[in-house]
Model the fold of this input.
Amino acid sequence: LVAVGRQIQRLTLVLNEGGFYIVSESNQRLLILFSRQQCSLCDQAEQLVREVLSAAEMVGWQLHKADIDTRSEWLSRYATSIPVLRREDTGAELYWPFPPSRVRQLLEAR
Done:
């Protein structure tokens, strides 16, 4: 919890290869794409997800790539299954290959 002005907000810290990302409780629309460098399937997955997110009805989502080689727990969990797309607020995951329709279902689920 952190004070922002006169309000108390719950913040979530998300560790990515570039450092920490802070996501406020009111902005829990975060997707993590677990990947690694030099992964052509990961590049394809990122492009597909970004295309889905660019649709007008999918505004407000943030996509962050997480290199599994930067954290041992990610490496042990995802080494043989990347790319994996995770919706941070629900923990739901999609394993490659996933078509655009499955990404939209993940984003629209409550």
In short: The longest strand covers residues 11-16.
